[in-house]
Amino acid sequence: RVSASGGGILPCSGHGNCTVEGTCECEAGYHGSLCDRCKSNYHEYHLDGGTDNASVVCLPCATHNISAACS
Q: How confident is the model at residue 2 (pLDDT cuts 50, 70, 90)?
């Protein structure tokens, strides 16, 4: 668990759940104090050309045959 402070409109950047203690429990593939970064062996994939955290998903490196991008 990490601190969820600064989450703004989308606590945990839309990629985790805010606990009663005010920390983020990130979904699989995400990490960081606001669940705003991809874990190792995951890559960022931007939905519909968006640039905000809610439009970025972290996918396993083997997804979309891009494992080379995770080397």
A: very low
27-61 in b/e form (b: 16+ CB < 10 A) is eebbbbbbbbbbeeebbeeeeeeeeebeebbbebb
Per-residue pLDDT of 20-44, as tens digits, reads: 998 999 999 999 999 989 998 898 8
Residue 62 CB partners (closer than 8 Å, separation 6+): none
Q: What is the pTM of this model?
A: 0.70
Please check whether residue 6 is in contact with residue 35, taking contact to mean a CB–CB distance below 8 angstroms: no
Measured CA distances, 31 to 35, 48, 49, 65 (Å): 5, 22, 22, 23
